[in-house]
């Protein structure tokens, strides 16, 4: 049984977030969360019973904030808010993303700055624990004022409205509530707004992208090292002194990881001194520490931003129980998430771009010294010719997908919300980019493995031989032309599944 994790403020570490996304780790509330939430709820109820107009409690929303709502209509106001804002379209978000949304929303609300009843927060956690995950359409948010539409779909489930995915099937919300031992709720003053305001959807999508890209990065480190060996490339570019003289932390870490993977290679020893006729390798081999190091630095920077955001309180207005104030601000604006997602999009695209160049090098006999297109009897067999075309198509597609989303904005809510982040799309497209990169890197793994095996009986390092064995357990050597698509699917699944992470001693948690 997996140990549960307590959602203490700031407790959503990168490791915890990974485990929520991939493994649905059990979660619990901290013992003092109930008291914090009850205190903020009591303040909201005092304001709701008073004559003071406070945004989000007894007024309309957005452009309608000047409209005062009668006390007898406050509950209906919150229900109407959820119904009117549940306007998402597109395919449902993946289960791992929905788990991240629920966990980060619960973590935010249990800080006690949002004014919701504790039982609502506990209900969200019970949905998570029961695996009754709200069906949330992927499209319909501009990343300010929070992720309103997708979070309205999440909240609708608490009202018995909408659908959940339960045991792999999509069923009515009422069935999901019953599976979690819950009855539908009637929302009270401010609760609907607190539940749908916030950056949890953008952040969850960006974290999911980060974790998928992290696996692609590790696989690309392995495929890059295998390519070095396949073309009898030099190990000198990975010398620690080169990277130390520049000082970039990611480059230093990546060069060290390559040295660890390549150490003790008999194949490398076979072409030293007079046995080597290479002066310099192509950039796609020689500059791997510089390029992959910059990518690692960007991933770590984005990871820090997203970890902070996942632990933050981003709804509006905020309830400050120490002073008795309710203050309207702009924490719902997801610009930090949008920019982090743009960083990740660029970084991930470069992983694929570099791998595609190495595939092109491997199939080019004039550069690699290997048989044309990595196959015996070229001409009769086409080998890896069109697999490279697939890699080129995916790398080119990523160039368009990587265009920064955060530089765009369209005013909404009759120009009241006049600058938005576009964080939700910025984060959502990371899944497509990562999928493309996984397939590109998978093709390189096959191509590099093929090239390496042309040098048999010489062997590469022990670590890379182990990695090669993992690849070969999925896909056999390409002897003559065969139906190639299943091979690409199998090795792409290996990359997506993180099957090569153990060979790369790098983590996002390390301090650059």
Summarize the structure.
The protein has 512 residues and is mainly alpha-helical. The chain is built from 20 helices and 9 strands.
Throw out a few tags for this protein.
512 residues; mainly alpha; Fumarase C, Chain A, domain 2; three-stranded antiparallel beta sheet; two-stranded parallel ribbon; 55% helix; 5% strand
Shape: elongated
CATH superfamily of the largest domain: Fumarase/aspartase (Central domain)
Mean pLDDT level:
94
CATH architecture of the largest domain: Up-down Bundle
Strand content: 5-15%
The CATH class label of the largest domain is Mainly Alpha
InterPro entries: Aromatic_Lyase, Fumarase/histidase_N, HutH, L-Aspartase-like, Phe/His_NH3-lyase_AS
EC number: 4.3.1.3
Modified residues (2,3-didehydroalanine (Ser)): 145
Enzyme class: lyase
Task: Walk me through the structure.
This protein has 512 residues and is mainly alpha-helical. It has two domains: 5-198, Fumarase C, Chain B, domain 1 (Orthogonal Bundle), CATH 1.10.275; 206-410 and 419-503, Fumarase C, Chain A, domain 2, CATH 1.20.200. Helices cover 55% and strands 5% of the residues. It has 20 helices and nine strands. The strands form four sheets. Strands 4-6-7 form a three-stranded antiparallel β-sheet. Strands 1-2 form a two-stranded parallel sheet. Helix 1 (14-23) packs across helix 4 (95-109) and helix 9 packs antiparallel against helix 14 (288-311).
């Amino acid at each position: 049984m997996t140990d549960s994790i307590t959602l203490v403020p700031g407790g959503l570490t990168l490791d915890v977030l990974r485990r929520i996304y991939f493994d649905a780790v059990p979660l619990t509330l901290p013992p003092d969360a109930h008291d914090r939430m009850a205190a903020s709820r009591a303040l909201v109820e005092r304001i709701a019973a008073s004559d003071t107009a406070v945004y989000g409690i007894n007024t309309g929303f957005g452009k309608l904030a000047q409209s005062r709502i009668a006390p007898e209509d406050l509950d209906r106001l919150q229900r109407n808010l959820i119904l009117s804002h549940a306007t998402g379209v597109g395919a449902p978000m993946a289960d791992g993303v929905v788990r991240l949304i629920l966990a980060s929303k619960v973590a935010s609300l249990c800080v006690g700055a949002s004014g919701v009843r504790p039982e609502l927060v506990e209900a969200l956690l019970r949905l998570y624990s029961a695996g009754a995950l709200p069906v949330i359409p992927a499209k319909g948010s501009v990343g300010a004022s929070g992720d309103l539409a997708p979070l309205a779909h999440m909240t609708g489930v608490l009202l018995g409205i909408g659908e959940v995915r339960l045991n792999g099937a999509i069923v009515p919300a009422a069935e999901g509530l019953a599976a979690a031992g819950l009855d539908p709720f009637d929302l009270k003053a401010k609760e609907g707004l607190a539940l749908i305001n916030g950056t949890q959807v953008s952040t969850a999508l960006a974290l999911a992208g980060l974790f998928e890209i992290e696996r692609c990065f590790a696989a690309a480190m392995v495929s890059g090292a295998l390519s070095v060996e396949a073309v009898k490339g030099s190990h000198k570019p990975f010398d620690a002194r080169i990277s130390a003289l520049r000082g970039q932390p990611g480059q230093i870490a990546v060069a060290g990881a390559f040295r660890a993977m390549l150490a003790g290679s008999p194949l490398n020893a076979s072409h030293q001194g007079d046995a080597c006729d290479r002066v310099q390798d192509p950039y796609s081999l020689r500059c791997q520490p510089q390029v992959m190091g910059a990518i690692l630095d960007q991933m770590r920077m984005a990871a820090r931003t997203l970890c902070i955001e996942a632990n933050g309180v981003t709804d509006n207005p905020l309830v400050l129980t120490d002073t008795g104030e309710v203050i309207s601000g702009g924490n719902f604006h997801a610009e930090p998430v949008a920019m982090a997602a743009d960083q990740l999009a660029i970084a991930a695209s470069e992983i694929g771009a570099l791998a595609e160049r190495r595939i092109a090098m491997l199939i080019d006999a004039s550069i690699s010294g290997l048989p044309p297109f990595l196959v015996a009897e070229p001409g009769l067999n086409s080998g890896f010719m069109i697999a490279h075309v697939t890699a080129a198509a995916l790398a080119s597609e990523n160039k368009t997908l990587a265009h920064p989303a955060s530089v765009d904005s369209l005013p909404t809510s009759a120009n009241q919300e006049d600058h938005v982040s576009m964080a939700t799309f910025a984060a959502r497209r990371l899944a497509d980019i990562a999928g493309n990169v996984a397939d590109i890197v998978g093709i390189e793994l096959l191509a590099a493995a093929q090239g390496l095996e042309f040098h048999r009986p010489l062997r590469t390092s022990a670590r890379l031989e182990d990695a090669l064995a993992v690849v070969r357990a999925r896909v056999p050597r390409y002897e003559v032309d065969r139906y190639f698509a299943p091979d690409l699917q199998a090795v792409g699944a290996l990359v997506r599944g993180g099957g090569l992470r153990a060979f790369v001693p790098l983590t996002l948690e390390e301090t650059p």
